[in-house]
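seq/struct pair 1
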Amino acid sequence: MRALAERPRRDNSAPVPVGQAIQQFDESVLRALRDTPGWAVHVFVVFTFIGAGWGLFLFMPFLLWARTRVDALFVVLTAGITNSTVSLVKGWVGRLRPCESLGWCTPITIAAPTGWSFPSGHAAGSFAVATFVALRARAYTDKPWIVVVVMYVYAAIVALSRPVLGVHYPSDIVAGAVLGSTIGWGFAVFVEHAQRTWTVPETRLGRFRQRLRDRRGVGRAGTVAVAAADSPSDVVREARSPGGSDRGDPGRSPE
C-alpha cells in the first residue's frame, strides 16, 4: 500500500496494476475537489472539526436519561473501538497522505495532520456512530428514517471534508466508511441482542438480572427492618403503652 503514494513509470501496453489505478482515480478526484467554492470549504472545515471527536459531546445529555443511557455509552464505546482499529490499520498499511506525497495537493485552511492516510479516521468514526444510531433509532421513535437520513448526511459531509481539504485520498474515505459502518453495525446488533435476552429469565443474562434483583431486594428488606426497629416513634409508643416499662418499674412510687 505504500506504493499507492508513488507513480512508477510503465509501458502503455502493459495492464494497469490495481494499486496504480486506484492512485490515478484518487488524484483525478482530488484535482476536481480543488475547485470547491470558498463558502463550501468553510462548511467542510466546521464538519471536519466536529468529526474529530467533538461531536460526541452532543450525546452527553443522553447519559442522564435512564432510557438512553446504555445506547449513549455504546456510542462512545463504538467511537473508541473504531479509533483504535483505524490506528492499527494505518500502521499496518502505512500510506502517505496526499499533502505529503503530492506537491500540488497542499492542505486547505487547516494544518497538515500527522500520521498515515489509509483509512480515514474521520470517515470511519462518523460512519460508525451514524450506523449505530441509525439502527438503534427505531427503539426511540416512530420515524427512524429521519434519524437515518440526518446521521448519514452528517457522516458523508465529515468524510468528504477530508479530501476537499487535501488531507486524505478518496479511497481512504471509502475504506474508512466501510470499516466504520461494519463496527457500528456490530455494536448495534450486540446491544439489541443483549437487551432482548436481558428480559428473558431462561437466558444467562436473564438469570444474572434476576440474581441482581434478588440481592437488591434482600438488601432493601434488611435496611427497612433496621430502620423500623430503630424508629423513635416505636420507642415512644412502647413507653406509653399500658404494658410499658413504666408499670413494671419497681422503683417508681405510686401516685
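seq/struct pair 2
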Amino acid sequence: MGQQAYRQVLQEYRSRILPADDPRVRRVRAVVVRIVRAAGIEPLQREINLHMQGYRFEWEANVIEDRRVNAFCLPGGKIAVYSAILQVTQNDDQLATVLSHEIAHALAHHSNERVTREESGRVNVLLNKAFDRQQESEADHIGIFLMTFAGYNPEEATRFWERMRQLSQGREIPEILSDHPSDERRIRDIERWVPKAERAKRAFDKGNIASTDSPKRLADARFEIRNSKLETRNKSQIRNSKQESGIGMNDSS
C-alpha cells in the first residue's frame, strides 16, 4: 500500500519532481543513505526496540518543488521531501532531524497501525491521516538515536524544533507542525534523550555493545532512485556489514 500511495504522490507532482542531479536531491539522498545505514545496526535496533525481521524496505527518496514545509516516509521506505523545508533546515544535522523522524515512522510500522485502525484501509489513510501523539513521541525517540548513530549532531534536533515553534508564532503554521506538534514537552523529551543517544553511540564505537548471534537485519532492503520522469531505476543492494554500521549502501544516482 505504501508503494501505491507513493506512486500516487509522484504522479500528482510529476512536473515538480526535481531531477537526480539537483543539489537538493543529492543532499537529501546523502542524508537518507546514512540514516538507513544506521538503522541496520543490530545493537541499535535492540536499544530502540525496532522489529525488522520479515519487513522489506525499498528505499526511495524524491524532492518535490513546493512551498510547503513538510516531508514524509511511507511504508516500505518511500520518502518525499517538499523543497521549502530545505530552506528551513539550517544544516545537514537539522535535515537529518526531519528525515530520521519520518523514517522512524516507517521503521516502527506506524502507518500499518494507522491503516489497521481504519475500516476502509484506503490509500488515502496513509496520505491524509495524522499520526497520534504516542506515535509522534516514539518517532522522536527513535529519530534521535538514528541521527546520532548516523554521525549527526543530535543537539541540532532541539534547535530545529525550537526554530519551528518560533516560526509558527503569529504566522501560518508550517505543515510539518500540523501533523507533528512542537511543544515544550516534546523539546524537553528530546533534550532528555540526546545524552542517552550520545552515550550509546560512544559505547558502540568503543565496541562495548556486542551483536548477538542472530542479528536483526533490514534484509532485502534496497535504495531505489527514480528520476523526474519516473522511468530509470538505479538500485544499490544494501548489505549488512559488521565492519561499519550493519548496512552497506551505495548511492549510484
